[in-house]
Design a protein that fits this description.
The protein is of the alpha+beta class. The protein has two helices and five strands. The strands form two sheets. Strands 1-4-5 form a three-stranded antiparallel beta sheet, covered by helices on one side. It starts with 5 loop residues before the first strand and ends in a 20-residue tail after the last helix.
């Protein structure tokens, strides 16, 4: 049995070329459509993680933080409200 050690680290500022290469190789481009929003997003510029095996890139995952977007939008909207905010995560959602 061969055991492979996978290390995972946050995407850093110098990782844009490798993230772009992996996304383009997997999806044909780094620009994708954000589900639920229908907008084009350059996934290579999003936060995420890189998985490596023996020092070689094995995979990339990026994500868009909807909470961050909600919070920045709520600062300019007087009626914005997020259930559970200020009550501890998981409380107030049900």
């Amino acid at each position: 049995m061969t055991v492979m050690t996978v290390s995972v680290r946050p995407i850093g500022a110098g990782d844009l070329p490798v993230v772009t290469r992996v996304l383009t190789g997997s999806w044909g481009d780094s620009t994708v459509i954000a589900l639920g929003r229908g907008e084009l997003v350059d996934a290579a510029k999003l936060p995420g993680f890189i998985a490596e095996v023996a020092g070689e890139v094995a995979g990339v995952v990026t994500y868009a933080s909807r909470l961050r977007r909600m919070l920045s939008q709520s600062q300019s909207q007087s009626q914005a409200w997020a259930p559970g905010w200020g009550q501890g995560w998981g409380q107030g959602w049900g």
